[in-house]
Amino acid sequence: MSNDPQVELGESLPRFVSHWIAAAFGYLLMVLLPLIAQWPRIADASWPQWWALLLFAGVTSLVAAVVNANLPVTSRELIKSVALGFALKATIVALSV
Amino acid sequence: MDVSDSPTLARSRWSKRTGRLIEGACFLLLLVVIGTVIYGLMLRALWADGYYVVIAAAGMGAVVMLLSLAQQAIAARDAATWRAMAEWQIRAARNRIMTGAASASGSGKEALDPDSPSYYEHLVEALLDHVQRDEGEGARP
Question: Where are the domains of chain B?
Answer without folding.
Answer: 3-139
